């Protein structure tokens, strides 16, 4: 097999297109609300303009500071959610799979740069 | 299965498992929590022109399973996600290689990485979190995956050219 085949440009363009289109569409607008999902149910809405700490479950603490959010403490074995650190981008979730927790800053539909949104 | 084929498959699985284990030590950008570079998929690329689809699936499952036993993560959600993603990636890469158009290592590697990332996140979203929302992190996973996919394609091509019948 060759390194670059005759039709490889198709796949390369497709990859670049998919990455850029998802990157653009998932990160639009600004928002100051974060939502906490436990077991895929929305359990807590956090206002990012107020600094503070929130205890979500036993041993799981979420901290808000300067419009950024992080999971400060968790009892999960690999601590991936804690290591992810501060998040301020809408649509980038902090996920803790062992505790089934997801913290995500939602894109506020009222602040988008679009004229009209059809629903 | 002939003896030569068994030997070849064993070597592929062994190399894949070791790469899978070693890459857990490589640091990753913090935007992709729990992700991995995917350098073990190099073995799948090297094997692609030489073995059948079922053997390819065996290599993918074997390297995930043995690699996870070595790093002590067997039967964790990450293992199930990785296995599912690897199997989907094998199916995609195999059908691209067998299609009538002529694709090379670079295109097949990139598409395989993309499919792998997408389906891992889909598995995580549907079966573990119960929501599709985690898919919003997909572009970051895909970007990191593309870097290692390009490196994999370059190395796999060199190995294919240099080793001939041996690997």
Features:
heterodimer, A: 119 residues, alpha+beta, mini-chromosome maintenance (MCM) complex, domain 2, four-stranded antiparallel sheet, 2 helices, 33% strand, B: 167 residues, mainly alpha, globular
Structure report:
The complex is a heterodimer of chains A (119) and B (167). By secondary structure, chain A is α+β, with helices and mostly antiparallel strands. Chain A is 19% helix and 33% strand. In chain A, strands 2-1-7-6 form a four-stranded antiparallel β-sheet, with no helix packed on it. Chain A is elongated. Chain B has 167 residues and is mostly helical. In chain B, α4 runs antiparallel to α5. Chain B is globular. Chains A and B meet through α1 and α2 of A and α4, α5 and α6 of B.
What order do the helices and strands come in, and which of them pair?
The complex is a heterodimer of chains A (119) and B (167).
Chain A: H1 8-26, E1 33-38, E2 41-47, E3 52-57, E4 60-65, E5 68-73, H2 80-83, E6 94-96, E7 101-105
Antiparallel strand pairs in A: 1-2, 1-7, 3-4, 4-5, 6-7
Chain B: H1 3-22, H2 42-47, H3 53-70, H4 77-98, H5 105-129, H6 138-163
Helix pairs in contact in B: 1-3, 3-4, 4-5, 5-6
Question: How much helical structure, as a percent, in the residues of chain B?
Answer: over 70%
**Total strands of chain A:** 7
Q: Strand arrangement, largest sheet of chain A? A: 2-1-7-6
CATH superfamily of the largest domain in chain A: N-utilization substance G protein NusG, insert domain
Anisotropy-based shape of chain B: globular
Largest sheet of chain B: none
Overall structural domain count of chain A: 2
Low-confidence stretches of chain A: none
End-to-end separation of chain A in angstroms reads 48 Å
Helix count, DSSP H or I runs of 4 or more residues of chain A: 2
Class by helix and strand content of chain B?
mainly alpha
Roughly how many Å apart are the termini of chain B? 17 Å
Kindly provide the radius of gyration of chain B, computed on alpha-carbon positions and rounded to a whole number of angstroms. 15 Å
Q: What spatial form of chain A do the alpha-carbon principal axes imply?
A: elongated
State the total count of DSSP E strands of chain B.
0
Name of the top-level CATH class of the largest domain in chain A: Mainly Beta
Q: Radius of gyration of chain A, Cα only, in angstroms?
A: 18 Å
- Overall mean pLDDT of chain A: 83
Spans of chain B of at least 5 consecutive residues whose pLDDT stays below 50 are none
Percentage beta strand of chain A? 25-35%
> Would you tell me the structural class of the helices and strands of chain A?
alpha+beta
């Amino acid at each position: 097999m060759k390194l670059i085949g005759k039709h490889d440009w198709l796949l390369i363009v497709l990859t670049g297109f998919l990455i850029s289109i998802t990157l653009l569409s998932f990160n639009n607008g600004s928002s100051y609300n974060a939502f906490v999902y436990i077991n895929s149910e929305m359990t807590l809405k956090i206002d990012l303009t107020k600094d503070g700490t929130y205890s979500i479950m036993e041993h799981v603490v979420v901290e808000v500071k300067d419009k950024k959010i992080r999971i400060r403490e968790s009892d999960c074995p690999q601590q991936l959610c804690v290591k992810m650190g501060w998040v301020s981008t809408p649509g980038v979730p902090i996920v803790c799979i062992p505790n089934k927790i997801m913290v995500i800053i939602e894109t506020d539909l009222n602040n988008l740069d679009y004229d009209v949104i059809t629903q | 299965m002939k003896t030569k084929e068994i030997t070849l498959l064993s070597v592929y699985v062994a190399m894949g498992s070791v790469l899978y284990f070693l890459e857990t030590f490589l640091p990753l950008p913090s935007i992709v929590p729990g992700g991995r570079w995917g350098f073990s998929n190099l073995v799948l690329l090297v094997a692609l022109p030489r073995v059948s689809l079922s053997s390819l699936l065996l290599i993918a499952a074997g390297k995930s399973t043995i690699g996870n036993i070595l790093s002590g993560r067997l039967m964790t959600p990450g293992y199930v996600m990785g296995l599912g993603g690897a199997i989907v990636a094998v199916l995609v890469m195999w059908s691209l290689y067998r299609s009538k158009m002529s694709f090379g290592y670079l295109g097949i590697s990139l598409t395989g990485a993309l499919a792998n990332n997408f389906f891992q996140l889909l598995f995580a979203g549907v079966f573990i979190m119960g929501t599709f929302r985690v898919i919003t992190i997909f572009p970051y996973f895909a970007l990191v995956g593309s870097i290692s996919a390009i490196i994999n394609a370059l190395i796999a091509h060199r190995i294919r050219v240099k080793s001939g019948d041996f690997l």
